[in-house]
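Subgroup meeting minutes
Present: P.N., E.W., G.H.
Scribe: E.W.

1. P.N. recapped why we're keeping a running log of single-chain structure predictions: easier to compare across weeks, and new members can see raw inputs and outputs side by side.
2. G.H. added today's entry (192 aa).
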Amino acid sequence: MSSTPQQRRGNTRQRIQDVALELFAEQGYEKTSLREIAERLEVTKAALYYHFKTKEEILISIFEDLTRPIDELIAWAGEQPRTLETKRELLRRYSDALCTGSQLYRFMQENQASLRELSIGETVKRRMFEMVELLRQPDAPTVDQVRCVSALFTLHAGMMFMQHIEKGDSEETRRAALEVAVDLITQAHHQA
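Output recorded in log:
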């Protein structure tokens, strides 16, 4: 059975995103051109323009697709009671989302200056503040609020940096970072 034009467009869009993210990760966002993306895809620039007019449009589409689970997680957590188990589950799900979009998150870490100039930079910052608010208790001592923020960033550090330092399994590193993050949130919760 042949695919519909909509399915083919979706597949082409996905191929463009995959190749663009690969090039952005290899060369950096600023050093990658639409021409290079088209060449790697073995299509004309006109064919690329049919789907995306700019590099920023490509990056925004990648970002929206791969970070949708974060928005869904924030919405879910906002409807839950602020219990320790909810916070632990939030960290578990966030760790999974980071793992699923690991190539994007590595790219974002390595291209922070470029991201600050793009519209998605504000979105990233807003999401991080929303996640922090879901984890912390506003009336908790400052040290416990720092533990909550640290729990979140422990997951980022585990994913982005530890795999370069440790020669072990990246899944083992992810689980270790999650364990430390859960320990931090548990300690903050018990102190409050």
